[in-house]
Automatic annotation (TrEMBL):
Signal peptide: none
Alphabetic keyword roster: FAD, Flavoprotein, Monooxygenase, NADP, Oxidoreductase
Gene3D superfamilies: FAD/NAD(P)-binding domain
Protein name (database record): Monooxygenase
GO MF annotation terms: monooxygenase activity
Database matches in InterPro entries: FAD-binding_Monooxygenases, FAD/NAD-bd_sf
Pfam families named in the record: Pyr_redox_3
PANTHER family per record: FAD-BINDING MONOOXYGENASE AUSB-RELATED, L-ORNITHINE N(5)-MONOOXYGENASE-RELATED
Cofactor list: FAD
Family membership noted in the UniProt record: Belongs to the FAD-binding monooxygenase family.
Record carries keyword Flavoprotein: yes
SUPFAM superfamilies in UniProt: FAD/NAD(P)-binding domain
Length: 601
């Protein structure tokens, strides 16, 4: 069937064939094993370039609540616990300060991709007005410090510290937390918020260790070498350098314009182009903000965004961005179908049509903005928008018009190897002074491998063992056999990936409520019942299949590099009612005060 997209007519069948061809070119038998770990393979490249390590004595005390990870999850949970009167909260963080992914990612141009009004947590509680619709990383990092300071989370925090062991002591009813700094302290409750994007990976390329020039991963940007700073000052150190950047994902899209501006020459090695839609960033007007920011404003905005991405027909779109645009197109297509004919199939067809139109527009954007037609052609993304992380940027495509910047497209094959002098692709050696690896983070490795420890619960049960056949939780948060432990992550809960902090704030509300209740009851433990956990999994089994991560997509971390998620796929879902369904369910659950499904002991 053909369909119009603006002035163009889309041949849907031809497009589907093209998508399949482009995907097939990129399937690699080694899947996720094509990557190597920065930390283990190149320890010197993995060290923290931002904060010196301060020696300290091991900690052996007791706290009421320990949280593993000092990103948004730890900060927001810590804040809510403090508000609930739990004073001794300890955050353990491997970076040198709070921030998590925003601590490490200081590459030039780093910026949030979801509107700051809904993305930056606790704006209302901290009284901060974001400066831009999409805040840049330094402002987000400052905001992390602001949350830490506002809620007194610095005092007990342990930075540059990685948890190496977490074990439940049934006699004392405490968790014993061990770290790589020799700490062995106890905590009544533990939260885990180690996030999916904190273990940096490199392509496992032959010769990678042989390169004689400078190289670094984008999450360890070496400003001492490049000059400049995270605020975007010119990188004067690159003025006489030929820089190669490997990778064209969300990170590269943000830093390429800066490298194109400052390097003498820039070579961008591409395996798969990103879809790069318009960004439309701009300052937030203080007068407008003062009018908008009445009591409860941020929750209202977050809920409105979730509603716009949900199944209903909300009558206003407060955020108005690339995410809600796609949803609005889908709704518009659906409105053309009489409600009596709405079925899961017609909904999926409306979604597919909206996606085809959107991607066609994005491909046309490359033609419009890139001077060289061949380069423009190579920058076109041939897959559905949610097959890979959608990107939004107003200077990325134009960067290829800079005289010193060249796209080295590899036709889906990728860089072949690294030599002493540079990068080999398409059989050609390209010499370079510096190689920047914009090669992303581990996502598809198992949770324990990424966290660096395996929690040991009641009767010596390990989390990896308990989850041997897939993740099992109540509400995505509580795990049977692991008392007083809370897992802060989106799956089996709202699973609202377009605005992860919304999931986090909601989980933090639940944790504060549950801990508050346990303390009121003088309970030593709180844990889900086996029946409640199973009933929750049964409910999740009625949820629609994941909208992202299918094997029909071009490979990437969304679909485990093309291999898909196998038997575990049905477990990586959210509430059958979507994000809003989950938020409403859990709000009612919290308000009822019954804490149904949890056993207090
Ligand atoms: P990604 O995993 O998205 O990208 C890695 C890139 O490296 C891909 O383009 C990949 O190509 C490429 N690559 C890997 N091996 C080779 C090779 N041998 N030759 C050439 N290219 C290669 O990592 P990012 O750091 O870009 O992004 C990770 C995630 O972090 C994002 O998806 C997003 O969730 C988050 N992020 C969020 C931002 C925000 O909110 N503002 C900003 C930046 C990142 P291929 O596609 O073919 O696999």
């Amino acid at each position: 069937m053909n369909m119009p997209a603006g002035a163009l007519t889309i041949d849907k069948e031809a497009l589907k064939r093209k998508y399949a061809e482009e995907r097939d070119k990129r399937i690699r038998p080694e899947g996720s094993a094509q990557y190597i770990r920065l930390e283990t393979e190149f320890a010197d490249l993995a060290t923290d370039p931002y904060t010196p390590l301060v020696p300290r004595d091991p900690v052996t005390d007791h706290v009421t609540f320990a949280f593993i990870g000092g990103g948004f999850a730890g900060l927001v949970v810590g804040a809510r616990l403090k508000q609930a009167g739990i004073d001794d909260v300890r955050i353990v963080e491997k970076g040198g300060d709070f921030g998590g992914t925003w601590y490490w990612n200081r590459y030039p141009g780093a910026q949030c991709d979801t509107a700051s009004m809904i993305y930056m947590p606790l704006l209302e509680e901290t009284g901060h007005r974001p400066s831009e619709k999409y805040a840049h990383a330094p402002e987000i990092r400052d905001h992390c410090s602001r949350i830490g300071e506002t809620f007194g989370l610095y005092g007990k925090a342990l930075f540059h510290t990685e948890v190496t062991g977490l074990e439940w002591d049934e006699d004392r009813k405490v968790w014993v937390v061990r770290t790589n700094r020799g700490d062995a302290f106890t905590a009544k409750y533990v939260g885990m918020g180690t996030g999916p994007l904190h273990v940096a990976k490199l392509p496992g390329l032959a010769g990678i260790e042989k390169f004689k020039g400078k190289s670094f991963h984008t999450s360890r940007w070496d400003y001492a070498y490049t000059g400049g700073n995270p605020e975007g000052a010119p990188m004067t150190g690159l003025a006489d350098k030929r820089v190669a950047i490997i990778g064209t994902g969300a990170t590269a899209v943000q830093c390429v314009p800066h490298l194109a501006r400052d390097a003498k020459e820039l070579l961008v090695f591409q395996r798969t182009p990103s879809s790069v839609d318009r960004r439309d960033n701009g300052p937030i007007d203080p007068d407008w903000f003062a009018q908008v920011a009445g009591e409860g404003w941020q929750r209202k905005w977050q809920d409105n965004f979730a509603a716009n991405l949900g199944a209903g027909f909300p009558n206003e779109d407060l955020v108005n961005d690339g995410w809600t645009d796609l949803a609005k197109r889908m709704r518009a297509n659906l409105r053309e179908v009489p409600p009596s004919e709405w079925t899961p199939q017609t909904m999926m067809a409306a979604f597919e049509d909206a996606d085809f139109e959107k991607m066609e527009q994005i491909r046309r954007r490359a033609e419009e903005l890139v001077d060289d037609p061949e380069t423009a052609e190579h920058l076109k993304a041939w897959y559905r928008q949610l097959c890979k992380r959608p990107c939004f940027h107003d200077e990325y495509l134009q960067a290829f018009n800079q005289p010193g910047t060249r796209l080295i497209d590899t036709g889906g094959k990728g860089v072949e190897r690294i030599t002493e002098n540079g990068v080999v692709a398409n059989g050609v050696e390209y010499e370079a002074d510096c190689i920047v690896y914009a090669s992303g983070f581990e996502v598809s490795t198992d949770y324990v491998a990424r966290a660096g420890f395996d929690a040991v619960g009641r009767e010596g049960q390990t989390l990896s063992g308990y989850w041997g056949k897939g993740m099992r939780t109540l509400h995505g948060l509580h795990i049977r056999g692991f008392p007083n432990l809370f897992m802060v992550q989106p799956a089996q809960a709202a699973n609202f990936i377009a605005n992860v902090p919304h999931n986090i704030v909601d989980h933090a509300d639940t944790i504060a409520a549950v801990v508050g209740e346990a303390e009121r009851r003088h309970a030593a433990t709180v844990e889900p019942t086996a029946e409640a956990e199973q009933a929750w999994l049964d409910l999740l089994a009625t949820a629609p299949a994941r909208a992202i991560g299918g094997t029909e997509c071009t490979p990437g971390y969304y679909n485990n590099e093309g291999a898909g998620w196998g038997d575990e796929a049905p477990l990586f879902v959210g509430h059958p009612g979507g994000a809003l369904g989950y938020f409403a369910h859990i709000d009612a659950w919290r308000r009822s005060g019954a804490f149904e499904g949890l056993a207090f002991g």
